[in-house]
DNA sequence: ACCTGAACACCGTTCAAGT
DNA sequence: ACCTGAACACCGTTCAAGT
């Protein structure tokens, strides 16, 4: 049987790692995480095969947060506003978490739990896009996967300023607004390259 | 006097580091770079105070590439097309270089040489934006700094797919096109947050 | 069953010894 | 004046020894 202190330590480690990764990015040391959790650093590797897997677990949690929000928005009154809200939540999560973008680029296909969350994220994005398109709120050459990939864009733009968005923590809203204006219907230019396929995304 | 082998080694190191950073990101080991250059790893630290400074030197070179391209485009016939071309070149540089985005986020203010290049980049972006606005090619609430920050956006979107854009190496063009459509004049929404100041960018 | 810290192979960086 | 590799303090990861 799994012991009581084991489940407690696992939770302490998840909490400590979540906070440290968010504050300092994915390069924080395991020792630092273990110390913050109040356990020996050997304990980290009893609960997680590798540092990458620990990061994946947390990254997956964040993705599920976004999936849950997206599912709520799937039945909202205004499909266009719902899609914007979905992108807002997704971008805000990244703006608050230094490790999110790094994890998105570094983990991509590796861990199974991440793959599953990404699949669900793509599903809910497809739903939101379909509804928004039906309402005429967005151009019709944009796909759900496009939306998922664009989630990183606005928060990344801000990183060039320095820190975790140290000063100007809400600047991402400006670039999200610009990007969303590019998704609107109207006199758009044809896109030069076809949308990525689901297979490319899932890996 | 600086010896002949010293200037030769410095060039070999810059070339090796440029290639390795582009291919494998900024986490490649100094040993690997030194080996590729054909020198002992102690030599790296004779030419560059730190790994970060070596990265900064290369990053700065890339920025100057873009500045030079921007200066050419400052006198182009079609100011709107010139701005798009500037963003295309900037995004392509990043799509080809795994370390560029990482360096942009990690170095930001630290190194003096980077600061100078960023300043010149902001200058040329201001010029291009002013001309494009004069020609009515873009909305009038977009600044030169906005353009600089948005350069990272399109290439970052693609990173969620995995690798250095392993498969689908031209997908960034799709997202750059969308983003550029968001910069066009017309029925845009007001931006929720003011543009960043030059001081914030320069650090 | 689980925790722990010493031990290992790496990393970036320093520096005494060479030419 | 510069090059070099051994030496140092770290890192992620493993594992024998404890409870």
CATH superfamily placement of the largest domain in chain A:
Tetracycline Repressor, domain 2
Radius of gyration of chain A: 19 Å
Which CATH first-tier class of the largest domain in chain A would you pick? Mainly Alpha
Name of the CATH architecture of the largest domain in chain A: Orthogonal Bundle
Number of separate strands of chain A = 0
Strand content of chain A: under 5%
Low-confidence stretches of chain A: none
Helix content of chain A: over 70%
Structurally, the number of domains of chain A stands at: 2
Query: Biggest interface between protein chains, with counts per chain?
Result: A-B, 49 and 49 residues
Main beta sheet of chain A:
none
Oligomer: homodimer
Structural class call of chain A reads mainly alpha
The CATH topology name of the largest domain in chain A reads Tetracycline Repressor, domain 2
What is the overall number of helices of chain A? 10
Mean pLDDT of chain A: 93
End-to-end gap of chain A: 35 Å
Shape of chain A: elongated
Could you give the order of the helices and strands of chain A?
Answer: HHHHHHHHHH
């Amino acid at each position: 049987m799994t012991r009581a202190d084991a489940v407690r330590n696992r939770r302490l480690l998840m909490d400590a790692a979540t906070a440290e990764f968010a504050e300092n990015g994915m390069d924080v040391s395991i020792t630092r995480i273990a110390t913050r959790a109040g356990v020996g650093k050997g304990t980290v590797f009893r609960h997680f095969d590798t540092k990458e897997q620990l990061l994946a677990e947390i990254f997956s949690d964040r993705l599920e947060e976004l999936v849950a929000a997206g599912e709520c928005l799937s039945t909202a009154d205004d499909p266009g506003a719902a899609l914007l809200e979905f992108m807002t939540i997704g971008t805000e999560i990244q703006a608050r978490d230094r490790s999110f973008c790094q994890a998105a680029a570094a983990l991509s296909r590796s861990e199974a739990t991440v793959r599953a969350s990404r699949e669900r994220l793509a599903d809910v994005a497809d739903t939101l896009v379909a509804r928004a398109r039906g309402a005429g709120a967005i151009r019709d050459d944009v796909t759900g996967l496009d939306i998922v990939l664009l989630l990183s864009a606005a928060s990344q733009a801000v990183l060039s300023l320095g820190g975790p968005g140290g000063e100007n923590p809400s600047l991402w809203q400006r670039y999200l607004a610009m990007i969303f204006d590019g998704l609107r219907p109207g006199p758009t230019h044809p896109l030069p390259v076809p949308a990525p396929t689901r297979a490319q995304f899932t890996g």
